[in-house]
Each structure stands twice: as C-alpha cells, then as structure tokens.
Specification:
By secondary structure, this protein is mainly beta. It is 7% helix and 51% strand. The protein has helices spanning 31-35, 160-166, 203-206, and strands at 15-29, 43-44, 51-64, 78-89, 93-103, 118-128, 131-138, 144-154, 170-175, 178-185, 192-201, 217-229, 233-234. Strand 7 (131-138) and strand 8 form a beta hairpin. The chain is globular. The chain starts with 14 loop residues before the first strand and ends in an 8-residue tail after the last strand.
Length: 242
Amino acid sequence: MVAYVAEQRVRLPVLWAAWRTQTFLNWSFPAQAVQALLPEPLVVDAYDGAAWVGLTPFVMADLRLPGVPAAAPALPAFAETNLRTYVRYPGGRDGLWFFSLEVACPLMLAARGIGVPYHPGNLKVARRDGTVVYSGRRWTGGASYRVVVRPGAPIARPTGRDVWLTSRWRAYSRRLGVLWETPAEHEPWPLATATVEELEETLTASAGLPAPTGEPVVHFSPGVRHVRLGASLPRPPKGAGR
C-alpha cells in the first residue's frame, strides 16, 4: 500500500524546494509494455492489474542548493514536467522511474550524473480564465506538450487510487550499470479534481511507449511547500543482501 505521508525523514537534505501548481495526468498501460522499458531489478507497480504512466507538469520554486543559507534568496522559479511510471524494488520498496524530465533550468542537468534523464527546453506555466496552461518543447526539438486543465473542487478525503497515483517518496535512476535511489519528504499533497480542456504531447512516443488510450485520470494540486530531497544512494545489485 502506498503511504499518504512521507515514509522516511530526510534529515540531511541536499535540496530544498517547493513544488507548485502541479497537475497529475495518469493513463493505464499494459504492464508488459512498461516493464520492457525498465532496468533490472525494478518491476512495474501495478494498480487494478495495469501499469500507469503519469505526465506531471509543475513549477519548481524556492529552490535552495546545499550550502546556501536559509536567509539567502532562492533561485528563480521555473517550470518542469516529468513523464514517470510507478515501480518496485526487490523487497517491496515502491517509487518512481522517470522516462524523461523536461526542465527550464539548466542547473538541474547536473543530476544526469546519476542517470536522471533531464532535457532542457522552453517551458511555460500560465493561468488563463480559470485554467492552467502548461507547454514546453525541448531545445533539441522533437518532444513537446501542451496541456490545459481546469482545476475543480478540493478532495477532502483522497481515495486509495488518488494516493496511489500521486504519493511517492523515492525515485530511482540508473547510470553506468548502477541503480540509484533518491528519497523525498514533504507534506501530503492537497488534491483537487480537474478536467482536461486541451492535451497534445509527444513525450510518451519519445520515451518508446505506445500511444495512451482513453482519457487520463486527472488531479490538480496547488502544491507542497516543504520539499526535502535526500542524497542519492546506490542500491545493491539484484539478489544482493536479500
């Protein structure tokens, strides 16, 4: 069962931030299609017998890097959009696997050192007539997206599926044969309903996924303010320490 609150304390964060104006769009996919794109030993974390892939645009704000005093000005806010799926590591630890992360701040490309697939691009987030408009295109061309969502009423009591599709407390990446785990801690997501008014994207195709079918499950959140990302640590090879 996915936890609604952070599963671990991040006592020595390497990054502090706020994630604002976030939308979660999730489609179900055949589990075998997603599993084929995952590195060993990660396996698809299925819900209702299916894998799920999420497109999550948001604004990264109040970003502070290691060694920056709390009183110092934070870096300017910028847009980011992730394409992700939900996985498990042997032993049952659930987390995220990112197919791609579109980002408007080149500083984030440093995370490529542990295999996090950041792609720099021109990204925008704007509010218009009660909607939120997300758009972006990679500097290298090709992958792009445009999403217009209309936030709805707050969700007072999130269901199990609401939590499952939005709350994860670690992410995995892979570089030169090493699997890395990055923990996260923040307050629970304040969720709201939302409807999609426009949706065009080529991120799924760029990741090697089949085209999504059906309407996505959509959630909106005004965001979380107290994000703490911990140090990325290598995970043992498959079968080690078990």
